[in-house]
Design goal:
The chain has 146 residues and is α+β, with helices and mostly antiparallel strands. It has a domain at 1-18 and 103-146. It has three helices and four strands. The chain has helices at residues 20-57, 68-99, 125-128, and strands at residues 6-17, 107-119, 132-137, 140-145. It has a four-stranded mixed β-sheet, with no helix packed on it. A hairpin with a 2-residue loop joins strand 3 (132-137) and strand 4 (140-145). The longest helix has 38 residues, at 20-57.
């Protein structure tokens, strides 16, 4: 019998030690996300206005983009996207406010990565897949726990 092995992906938690620098960077990232969402909201509102203008113009019987039902469906879709963007923006603002309440030197989960682990016959699968972690402070890896 030959000794076989296989490499498989496993999740790795990224944990971060809270510092003032981490808080500042996290808030900057959230602000970028909020700006992107604001831009998407403006685009949705512009599209909504264009459809409303078509519907208003359509009162004379002309719908360049299709039937009144299609225009209404497009409006409904835009309003749903607008609602989703607004909820996402609220969630991000809530997260931004919570950053200030994080205690310094606290450890928070900030992401997940994957790495490969080699499996061989006779090894304990559960041990190989136990929680692997990378501990980071101000972007610098402090520890790797396998």
């Amino acid at each position: 019998m030959s000794l076989k092995s296989i490499k498989v992906k496993r999740p790795v938690k990224v944990k971060t030690i809270v510092t003032d620098n981490f808080k500042q960077q996290a808030k900057e990232e959230i602000n970028k996300e909020i700006r992107l969402i604001d831009n998407q909201i403006m685009q949705i509102e512009l599209q909504s206005k264009q459809i409303q203008d078509q519907v208003t113009g359509g009162l004379s019987g002309y719908f360049p983009e299709g039937s009144p039902e299609q225009a209404q469906q497009a409006m409904d879709d835009l309003l749903q996207r607008l609602q989703q963007m607004s909820e996402l923006k609220q969630e991000l603002q809530f997260q931004k406010e919570n950053i200030d309440h994080l205690a310094l030197n606290n450890i928070v989960i900030t992401g997940s990565l994957e790495n490969y682990v080699e499996l061989r016959p006779g090894e304990n699968l559960y041990e190989k897949f136990k929680d692997a972690e990378i501990l980071v402070k101000d972007g610098i890896i402090q520890d790797i726990i396998e």
